[in-house]
## 1
Amino acid sequence: MPIAHVALALPLYQLFDYQIPTALIGQVTIGGRVTVPFGNRHSIGIVVAIDEQTEFQPAKLKTVVSVIDQTSLFSDTLWQLLIWATDYYHYPLGEVLSHALPALLRQGRPAELPEKKQWQLTEIGATFALKQLSRAPQQQKLLALFQQQQPAEIIQSQDFSANIYQQLKQKQLIVQVVLPQTIHRWQPSQACNPSPLTLNTEQQQALTNILPTLNTFHIWLLDGVTGSGKTEIYLNALASVLSKGQQALMLVPEIGLTPQTIARFQSRFNAPIDILHSGLNDTERLQVYLRAKQGENAIVIGTRSALFTPFQSLGLIIIDEEHDSSYKQQEGWRYHARDLAIVRAQREQVPVILGSATPALESLHNAEIGKYQYVKLTQRAGGAHFARQEIIDIKGLPLNSGLSQPLIQKINAHLAQNKQVLLFLNRRGFAPLLVCHDCGWIAECPRCDKPFTYHEKQHKLICHHCDTPRNIPSQCPKCGSTHLQSVGVGTEQLEKQLRLRFPDIPVSRIDRDSTAKKGALEGYIEQINQGQAHILVGTQILAKGHHFPNVTLVGILDVDGALFSSDFRATEHFAQLYTQVSGRAGRGEQAGEVLLQTYHPQHPLLNLLLEQGYPAFAQQTLHERAATLLPPYSYQILIRAADKNNQHAPALLERVYQWLRSECDDPALWLLGPVTATQSKKAGLFRWQLLLQHPHRRFLQTITTQLIAQMIQWPETKNTRWTVDVDPIDF
Ligand code: ADP
Ligand code: ZN
Ligand code: ZN
């Protein structure tokens, strides 16, 4: 009796076995979906193996209910990649496989492009006298279009209501026909338009290195300062791949893809480019997935999960801003899209280009040890200059909503010359605290034990950790005082202050709140790009990808938090953010200026960054990491556990700690914890963690596999949510 071993999308480290009924033998396929009974309902699972073996009594097994796919949904390489990933990330296979599918496939939709239907004239309709419809002018108009043999798209674009079509149909004048499925391929020989730019020497050199390697697996790290023309290199590499008739995948950070970049890609290629952005609905996502699979699109651009797009003939993977932390999934299956993309490229035998102005320290290290090939662009393309940088020591200076007098003077000077100013403050909302002036009470989110952020526009308190909104109390719940005061500055307050101070200058605030509405960001950018004097206020959204040629002054309001964080990666992230933000100044012809407000002007990291730039910072930090054996000179796995009553989670991790200590006497295995997470409570759960670190990845992987095999048998896991985070990047 054949048995199907099925992966279900559940956080359980096991497969589920089902009998295959005779009628379905031959239809059940590895990599295909089946419907199976689970509990008292039906679930969709993916067949992982078919054989005659089961650990259970065969007679007691339930049977497969139906088969959704008779062929595998996954190519061999994609399947192998996901199997590898479930091992590497110690994450259940069912969840991994389901994550790699578009939502509609998870829900059981057929893996085919939906039928295309089209209205056509009937024989009666073709000769029907239009004047007979003179009492129904809309129907008359529509029928006239059909009789004039207008193309379907033109007729559709006229927006006749469905009702009008139905009425013509009832009169048997038109019918709806199903169009045969045709696969539209693009023409490789005509896929690319010539570049409007003449490459500079550095760009040319980079391409001379990269282009000949594009036929097989190579990893390129393209380290190029902001504005050095990396995108131009991508476009040339893509042109080479498309002209061979191959497809390409480009990953971009979560908020990094700008309308300008999209337009640049579209004008460069005469081949379909599909963009997986957050505005797409599930049907549109499925369509991009299927089009790629059938080879109908040439380029797919998308965020992290676009990595799992199947391609008919993949020729290149590009990862823009490879250092960006949004490539790491921060919940559930915590994979790193950059790292997985490299494994995928290796299995598909295609090249991968990692681009950044501020490469991750891991990537620089990999280039140093020869794992990646390295090209560098040091000049700004198109004649733009680097910005002048300066520190403002704000100790003892009066601040107006975060602005010091020297900064205000500079803003004035730049605006007076009709230039634009960008002010960076990585804190949205009006103020990070609401405090009772009489007793010191602080409004805190009870689910996270963290202060609420005061949002003036929405007139709400909002927890930035769990998004819970609250009404603003009129009185202090502790002492009854009505003197509640906001403390600290967020982007909303800064915007308000700037409007007061510069009433004639438009101010655009760009953060998650102001850009939540679809098209809002595009609207701001359009206005800014008209070029008049303008003040931009924003969070890190502003740091990414945008090209504002008229910004000549960048002011950074508050950096001190990042300088004194306990997370060893915080300084790396700060240096990247600082370099990216200051790269926004002087992108055009005019030289720019960067001003940084701090209470710690002597801070060695700040001075290193300002005086010698990111490369020097990266070198020094890598030396420090080597000396202290931190990644990339060691490997880490973080075991996280959370529970509602703050007992089971620490108990579970304590048992993990004891088990590791007793099973493993390797002194190089370094254990930190169990300790509470940096954010010790979130959305009502108390969070704990235990960090494992070892110089050898293989060792860490093996011990973790053994550990999990034990853990799933322990009663302590019952009342906790626990996960394993491989190569964690936030603590
Ligand atoms: P990056 O991706 O490194 O930030 P881009 O490729 O976006 O850089 O280039 C920055 C700006 O310089 C863009 O406006 C681009 O059109 C322009 N640019 C790029 N390469 C050249 C070149 N060879 N000559 C002139 N302008 C260029
Ligand atoms: Zn009070
Ligand atoms: Zn909260």
## 2
Amino acid sequence: MDYRVIEIKSTHYQDPSAGHLSFVEAEHDLPFPIRRMYWIYGAEKGTHRGFHAHTLNWQLLFCPFGSIDLILDDGETRETVTLDSPSKGLILTPGLWREMIWNQKDSILCVAASEYYDPDEYIRDYDAFLAFRNSIKNHKQE
Ligand code: TYD
């Protein structure tokens, strides 16, 4: 499936109680420029969100606090990636259906996206998503 799990660069103080620092640089660490960032916070354990695909956006998802399952679907298979460390990143290409489940209350989901917000770039209907995937597949076979 067209996603990649990355280890986000992190530095560690000699005294671990002073915390850690993680960082990403657009285009150096990511295969896209960052035009937008957003984050989801304040969600209860068991929250189930997402239920959409993007036609244009490349994204980096990471969870700086807590644990969130990302369920990814390319129209043929479903895979789950658990974001449970501030140094774990998930790069998603356009065209993947995603759902997120909060494993822990107040987990934070951060997203860096390649495009500005555009509601027309979302697919929110699963049957429309399958039709979109089929149209890509047929286009590639031509
Ligand atoms: P939405 O993408 O629908 O989130 P979810 O599918 O997880 O519920 O976004 C919720 C609202 O936030 C919607 O009214 C649009 C707005 N929004 C922006 O204005 N800019 C953004 O970058 C995002 C992601 C959402």
